[in-house]
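INFO batch 0412 | record 1 of 1 | parsing
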Amino acid sequence: MKRIALLMFFCATVFIGNAQTKNFIDKPYLETSALYTATVVPDKIFLSILITEADTKGKTSVEELENKMAAKLQSLGIDIKKQLTLEDLASNFQKYFLRKKDVLKNKSYTLLVYDAETAGKVILGLESIDISNVQLAKTEYSKLEELKIELREKAVAKAKTQAEALLKPLDQKAGKALYISDMNTNLRGVFNTRARGINMAYDKAMQESDFQPLDIDFEKITVESSVTVYFEIL
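INFO prediction complete | emitting tokens
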């Protein structure tokens, strides 16, 4: 009996769904698609820092370089407790062989900064204390989710404007939305990042007082949101 009841409920559900679909198709409607795009400057910049004794040919230990790095970053206003993290817990124990007899240690860190100017200061500052292995890992935008929602709203509004413009010459109007499809939200420039000037050479004769921030121009993050909307024709 339960099986019969479940079967009847399923059939009724399918019938109602088909009826609703038929009613939707029977109504005159206009399909419009809209794309809305925005570009933002990344406000979270992740730098990968490799500290290795090879930079000083084994003359300075990783521990000494690590202390120098911490002092240099703090002098630049970096909160190392919040912005500096060890990339891998095993990084403390990484070693490699040089010339089959010398064992040199290294450590890998990730540093978070919030603008390109600070990134430039960090690169120059670390270069001055014999830490030259600094690379751009990735960039992010902290309010990305809020931006996605905003772009969806604007894309829907744009779709309605397009529908009204198409129907106006016909003396018709766009009614309520019968169907909305959030097609996709594309991101460009988040993982495929570039930084001009990131590998600029450092002049050893340059005094620390002469430091100028590197002219780094990070690729902007492009966010695209597209929707398709069916409007009833009145």
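INFO post-check: Residues 24-42+141-234 form a domain with the Translation Initiation Factor IF3 fold (CATH 3.30.110.170).
INFO record closed
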